[in-house]
Specification:
Length: about 850
């Protein structure tokens, strides 16, 4: 606890705030391995007394962690509904709801989740959901992680990015040189040399001191082994038995592993190597366990893992631990028995990455298995990799499954694998390889009696034709799929086909398409087809978004994000986040659009399609603000989409590159980057994409011969010279940037001046410069060169809505109350509050209120507590 007084004071203040307000907090405690995170929190909990309940859960350093691992410890302590759900390996949203219910008790709770850098996907989902709702429970949640290992924990790194505005962070640093000297002095050790060797890492310092001897160990491993060497031979062999089991070792298991050596537990505890719980022992730190495990002879390590496997198999249902020990023991039969079960359990909780890893583990030992078993394992791995957007890995597994079916002569399996492979190739952007497989799957399956596989293959062709906006073919194949699905009473195939047909109609802004998609969502939810519900939810947003029906898109967007977030449907959640980024851009909320795009781009689970959309948004925000570095995102997006043949991917990129070229004064480049996109949009009768492309070509002086009715009305009016109607339509739609650009085409200097002011208010410096030049070329004097007075009076650069939100925050209103006051969703308020905090460069609502007073945005006075 040396030099930890400030951190302890922060924790005390946080808990006092929770106790006084009954509003919970989630705090992230970071630091390198051995810096003392656990020691700090144990001391903090120990000082609270019986008026505060402490719950602990720890993630285990298994190569493939158990789903909901730390929640098992918590559930054991709480019992009730939480224990039942965790035992059943329930979905993250169900576990999070039960955990919140448990935390809403009368007694304030400190919940510690240790070592979340080792957490499985389901646990991280629970933590994310908990962070969003923790203010409803009188609890202080403390999650520890190693901040020096985030490069190897990409899932956690993304979660930390998502939680940045919902959490507080405490970073523990190493001990100072003076602190190390204070510890070293009583032992006659050179403090400066100890500090040089250890870097002030508390665990290393303590181990080096405990090791004794004249020489200070060079590494943590050396220090741990030197300390262990002071124990008896029997005690050291007991430590080896403990070391082969990551995390806590139940005493019954230790008796099996160590036999009579278990009598040396007290010696190991007294030496400080081990700590004891109610019915288990564990190393004081994972660094110590790794050091001891690494020193065990290969034969003894193998024997210990075999013993652990046999013991756990007799009485343990923890498939992940069984698979771990079977793998370490080189027991291929055991791995093939336990790893698939662990994968199935992980998939059931939404821990799809862990599920994929378990199937990969099984496949490493499946060389001698039958083709049927290999095909099943490969198919399951492909499915789990698909759900986590590991498309190249999914494709490799699916190709393996396809080969197994071919070698078996299984036409049904081969056809279905072809269908799945084509879909994966499309997701990965490998359209030329994928296209022939869609038809090949149908041709093969039509040689067999019609069944589920053929209905899905028809649906697959329908989906592809829908995506490339070949309406007639998409409808024809979709009708075939629906007819067969209904004849077979096949809900999965029915939902799949219904979604394709509904998406096609929604693209054309037909209300019957929305009705079909809503029915598909409801059916999928009712029958547990969560992935299909996620996909249909995305389609409910994409059509209205492209047609600038923002209110309709917003309602489905919020519902879809909530559903996909709760159920760990990360691929579809990221599609929706990318769609939200585009909507925020179109509505003029460029800061929040860039933030949403960044969430998509920083997440390793992002599929190429969603990544392309997010890159366009980021490139356009930079382009429109004149920030520079816009070319990189737009060129990357172009590389992703150019071979897809899809309007929804190619046209936004073409339009964005054209706008960037026009703003840069490069009219020739506009034609070059839009020829393909315009032809595609016109061929597919996509009036909004065609309108946007044609508009930028018109701005560059290109006058295309366009069919009547080919362009959406606002663009059509601009190209017809009816700037007033175009500006009116854009204003009604809610697109301020486009409305301002339409005004700029006026012959009326006053209207052009209004355009300039609106562009400056948006922060659109390049477009403002273009319009200002037009005014000056007309001889207009006094052209504004900066923000309007209202903006200058607001030093933080907040939008009008953000100012409203800031004032309500300063008055003490919570997000739900603000949402009710402003008649918007609570999630929309979340985004506004995040933007306010970022622009004010503050970390809390209280700091934001203080900043509002300091900047003169709000007069001094008490807010509502």
């Amino acid at each position: 606890m040396l030099e930890r007084g400030d951190s302890m004071s922060i924790l005390d203040a946080l808990l006092a705030g929770v106790r006084s307000s009954s509003v919970g907090r989630l705090v992230l405690v970071g630091g390198e391995a051995g810096v003392g995170k656990t020691t700090l929190l144990r001391q903090f909990c120990a000082t609270q007394g019986p008026s505060v309940r402490a719950l602990w859960g720890a993630c285990e350093p298994l190569r493939t962690p158990r789903p909901l691992g730390p929640l098992l410890d918590v559930a054991e302590a709480t019992g009730a509904e939480l224990a039942e759900l965790v035992a059943q390996v329930a979905r993250p949203h169900e576990v999070a709801a039960a955990l919140l219910s448990e935390l809403r008790g009368q007694v304030p709770t400190v919940l510690v989740l240790e070592d979340v850098h080792w957490a499985d996907e389901a646990t991280l989902d629970v933590m994310t959901l908990l962070a969003a709702r923790i203010d409803s429970a009188p609890a202080l949640v403390l999650a520890t992680y190693r901040d020096d290992e985030l490069d190897r924990a990409e899932q956690l790194r993304f979660v930390l990015g998502e939680l940045v505005r919902r959490t507080q962070r405490i970073k523990l640093g190493p001990l100072s040189r003076a602190g190390v000297a204070d510890l070293a002095e009583p032992h006659g050790i050179d403090g400066d040399e100890l500090y040089r060797r250890t870097g002030g890492n508390p665990f290393f310092v303590v181990e080096a001191i405990a090791a004794g001897g004249e020489e200070i160990p060079e590494t943590v491993r050396d220090a741990v082994l030197a300390r262990a060497a002071q124990c008896s031979e029997a005690a050291r062999r007991l430590l080896e038995a403990v070391a082969v089991v990551p995390g806590q070792v139940d005493l019954w298991l230790l008796e099996v592993l160590a036999g009579t050596l278990v009598d040396r537990v007290d010696e190991c505890l007294a030496s400080g190597m081990l700590s004891a719980g109610r019915a288990h022992v564990a190393f004081r730190h994972e660094l110590a366990r790794l050091a001891i495990e690494g020193a065990i002879s290969p034969n003894r390590r193998l024997a210990l893992h075999r013993t652990a496997l046999a013991a756990l198999a007799d009485r343990d249902g923890d498939y992940a631990r069984l698979a771990h020990h079977a793998d370490a023991a080189g027991d291929g039969e055991g791995v093939l028995r336990w790893a698939p079960r662990a994968g199935e359990r992980a998939a059931g909780t939404g821990a799809h990455r862990e599920a994929a890893a378990q199937y990969a583990r099984a496949l490493r030992f499946a060389g001698g298995a039958s083709l049927e078993v290999r095909a099943q394992l490969l198919q399951r791995r492909a499915d789990e990799c698909y759900l986590t957007a590991q498309f190249e890995e999914a494709i490799a597994a699916q190709e393996g499954a396809l080969e197994c079916h071919r070698r078996r002569g299984d036409l049904l399996g081969e056809g279905d694998a072809l269908r799945s492979l084509s879909r994966l190739l499309f997701f990965a952007g490998r359209t030329r390889e994928a296209e022939p497989l869609t038809v090949a799957a149908v041709e093969l399956l039509e040689r067999r009696p019609a069944g589920h596989e053929l209905a899905m293959a028809y649906g697959n062709v329908s989906q592809r034709r829908m995506v490339v906006e070949d309406g007639e073919a998409a409808e024809e194949w979709g009708a075939r799929a629906l007819e067969l699905a209904d004849r077979l009473d096949d809900t999965e195939a029915h939902v799949y086909a219904l979604t394709n047909i509904g998406a096609l109609e929604v693209q054309a802004d037909k209300v019957e398409g929305r009705i079909k998609l809503e029915r598909a969502v409801a059916l999928a939810k009712r029958h547990g087809l969560e992935e299909y519900a996620g996909r249909a939810s995305v389609q409910l947003v994409l059509g209205p978004l492209r047609n600038r029906r923002f209110e309709l898109a917003r309602g489905h967007l919020e519902a879809g994000l909530e559903y996909c977030s709760e159920r760990g449907l990360d691929m579809w959640r990221l599609y929706l986040l990318a769609a939200r980024a585009r909507m925020e851009l179109d509505l003029g909320h460029w800061e929040t659009a860039a933030d949403s795009a960044a969430l998509v781009l920083h997440d390793p689970r992002t599929a190429p399609v969603a990544r392309g959309w997010a890159l366009v948004v980021l490139g356009l925000v930079r382009t429109r603000r004149g920030d520079g570095e816009a070319d990189g995102p737009l060129e990357e997006a172009h590389a992703l989409v150019r071979s897809t043949g899809e309007v929804m991917q190619i046209c936004p990129v073409g339009a964005a590159r054209a706008e960037a070229a026009w703003l840069a004064g490069d009219a020739a480049a506009v034609e070059l980057v839009t020829d393909t996109a315009l032809s595609l949009a016109l061929d597919r009768r996509a009036c909004w994409p065609a309108g946007e492309i044609a508009y930028w070509r018109w701005q560059a002086g290109l006058h295309d011969e366009l069919p009547a009715g080919a362009l959406a009305e606002p663009y059509d009016r601009s190209l017809a010279g009816d700037w007033a109607r175009a500006a009116e339509l854009w204003s009604e739609t809610g697109c301020p940037y486009e409305a301002a650009l339409a005004l700029a085409e006026s012959d009326d200097a006053a209207a052009v001046r209004d355009s300039l002011e609106q562009l400056q208010q948006l922060g659109a410096r390049p477009a403002s410069a273009v319009v200002a030049r037009r005014l000056r070329n007309r001889g207009v004097r006094g052209v504004p060169r900066g923000p309007r007075p209202r903006t200058r009076e607001n030093p933080a650069g907040l939008t009008a809505r953000e100012l409203e939100v800031l004032l309500l925050v300063a008055d003490g209103l919570r997000n739900a109350e603000i949402a009710q006051r402003l008649v918007v969703s609570e999630k929309t308020v979340d985004h506004h509050v995040s933007a306010v905090l970022r622009k004010l460069d503050v970390r809390s609502r209280g700091e934001a209120a203080a900043a509002a007073v300091r900047l003169g945005i709000r007069p001094p006075g008490p807010g509502r507590l």
